[in-house]
Amino acid sequence: MAASFIYLKGNRMSSGLCLKNFRFSRQCATVASVTKHPIPSTVRTSLFENKKILPFSSFLTDSHGRQHNYLRISLTERCNLRCQYCMPAGGVDLTAKDKLLSTSEIVKIASAFVEEGVDKIRLTGGEPSIRPDIVELVGLLKTLDGLKTLAMTTNGLLLSRKLPAMKEAGLNMLNISLDTLIPPKFEFITRRKGLEKVLQGIDLALEMGYSPVKLNCVVMRGLNDDELHSFVELTRDKDVDVRFIEYMPFEGNKWNDKKMVPYHEMLEIIRRKYCDLRRMEDAINDTSKAYLVPGYRGKIGFITSMSEHFCGSCNRLRLTADGNLKVCLFGNAETSLRDLLRNGASKEELIAVVGQAVGRKKKQHAGMSNLPSMKNRPMILIGDSNSLLTGSFIATSSIRPYCTDKGDHFSNHNDYLDDPWTSYRETHASLLQASSLFNASTRRSNLSQETHEHTTPNANDQVKLTHVDHHGQARMVDITEKPWTVRRATAQAIVWIGPEAFRLVNENLIKKGDVLKVAEIAGITGGKLTSQLIPLCHPISLHQLSVRLSLDSKNNCVIIESNAVTHGPTGVEMEALTAVAVASLTVIDMVKAVTKEAEIRNLNLVSKSGGTRGDFNRTKNDDMPFPC
């Protein structure tokens, strides 16, 4: 029966041959389909020999004319990270080891594909670099005659240790997944420390001649869409290709279009700073739309699977770690090549089954509105977990439990994707503050060294951030020995609300109520809660906290000023600033039904006094003390 099936596929394979062979194949296919007689081995062999004169294998060419010369192989379902969007806090179920492809099976399947015309293989996971025999496997695959490119997609954690051996074995292309450049955010997303190791891996890859090193960054609204400019800056001096990937729907990742940042929106954000961003020409099968900042060494790109699919030029097939062939990343149809091999199928029979699967490949995926409702593997089980945002595992047959460490950081926040801003900010406010302060300190230190400008009387002294220790970790300042004095602080802000909203506020016609009075109360309340909102602030006893709001009719602005007073060992700058900030946000909330363009301007500290570091007074412009 298998031989009969092979012969039927011979019709497709022979389509690129001369007319004589085509007619002979079609006649034999008709006989086989009617009589169901097996095809003689001599005929079958001659047909497979004829493939050598084909420009490309018919088995790997679908009914839409797409030639599939690129195979992605998942080597493992395991990973050394525990990403929030990929791994549930309670653990996952892994396929039993005996159900996964062995090294010899991977090589045998890969060999069959390469003989049919595949010239590029990418190794994925899970995390492929954690496979114990990864160097050996790379070496075996690289010996396949006809394979031009052997690539890997990795999270980068083990590159410093394993890349030299993998490169020597034949790995000649590298993609590294990196969704953030902020250490606390990296730790939040992955439940592991390790950003520094990833960055070291990138630098090592560049030193070893990988050109370019591709960086895969899944962009998700509310999580890392504020880092687009930072990623572009990586291309200034490094030969990297940063590819911004639209967030895609897969099993368990709670996808919705509000979390996705479409390509054109990302492009608009980037062009606000890099207005001379230039479009580059793409190769025929490129998944990424390439751009370049003139003068920068690297480039950026956008993988637009959702907003502008590239199905028409798709040349990729995927082999999962448990041996299933997927002809479409978003399709739920799979064909088990593992079972064929273990049932004794020959290489020819294996390729025939592949040809049937490729022949059924659809013209394009179901589209953004339909994909979320379709049943599909989580990405980590498909084999692209390091390059695209993924979901949690689904149960399969022959599985065994695999749980995350009980000491995982932030394990109670697996559902942050439901409300990324709230969960992320509430959990990591202190870490983000420490990171920002530490990075700011580094930037200022570098600037000081370049310009020889110092803010302290003694040029040998260094400005130190009291909330950050020498490791860059957040800490609360010990104020036990600090003297008690009367401490005062004044802060200010301007909220521009536009002419129509200003008129309504001035006439007290806003439907929500008296804007100025509500904002005043909100500001006082916020100021008193400062230590609960800003994690490293000490709870102090306020002797006075006032918030005053006035209207600037010339500029359609609400002017807000707060004053805070205490007698104690620490200042009240943050209390004054928090009061102004909360009052400003309240004004915007009160007028948002009238205008969505309201904005906070010039929120700053005006003055402080009573501290051991001396008094501070901001210089004002007498003509316009509160510039709008």
Automatic annotation (TrEMBL):
NCBIfam families reported for this sequence: moaA, moaC, PRK00164.2-1, PRK09364.1
Listed pathway(s): Cofactor biosynthesis; molybdopterin biosynthesis
UniProt protein name: Radical SAM core domain-containing protein
InterPro entries noted in UniProt: Aldolase_TIM (IPR013785), Elp3/MiaA/NifB-like_rSAM (IPR006638), MoaA (IPR013483), MoaA-like (IPR040064), MoaA_NifB_PqqE_Fe-S-bd_CS (IPR000385), MoaA_twitch (IPR010505), MoaC (IPR023045), MoaC_bact/euk (IPR047594)
All residue ranges annotated as the Radical SAM core domain in the record: 63-290
Entry keyword set: 4Fe-4S, GTP-binding, Iron, Iron-sulfur, Lyase, Metal-binding, Molybdenum cofactor biosynthesis, Nucleotide-binding, S-adenosyl-L-methionine
Pfam families according to UniProt: MoaC (PF01967), Mob_synth_C (PF06463), Radical_SAM (PF04055)
Family: In the N-terminal section; belongs to the radical SAM superfamily. MoaA family.
Reactions accelerated catalytically: (8S)-3',8-cyclo-7,8-dihydroguanosine 5'-triphosphate = cyclic pyranopterin phosphate + diphosphate; GTP + AH2 + S-adenosyl-L-methionine = (8S)-3',8-cyclo-7,8-dihydroguanosine 5'-triphosphate + 5'-deoxyadenosine + L-methionine + A + H(+)
Species for this entry: Daphnia magna
Cofactors that this protein relies on: [4Fe-4S] cluster
